[in-house]
Amino acid sequence: MNAHTKSTDTTRKMKKRLSRGQRVTVTALTAAQLALAAAAATDLARRPSSDIRGPKFLWSLAIPINWVGPIAYFTLGRVNPRELPRLK
Fold first, then answer.
1. What pTM, to 2 d.p., does this model score?
2. How many angstroms separate the CA atoms of 78 and 52, rounded?
3. So what's the pLDDT on residue 85?
């Protein structure tokens, strides 16, 4: 049995242990986390460096960190967080 097969078997066993409600909750939270990270990354890419506290490169490393990165970027990383990004 190779490492990939072993990992897949472990994932399947864990999924079987979760109830349907738990699986739905995990899926919803995962989708929300990915959407938040995508929104933060998009905002970071579109926003000029002058409107960001700190280097963009460091924020791009922080954003993928679970929940904390995107929330920190939206609350601390933008110079004027109340202003929504303008779509062009």
1. 0.72
2. 5
3. 58
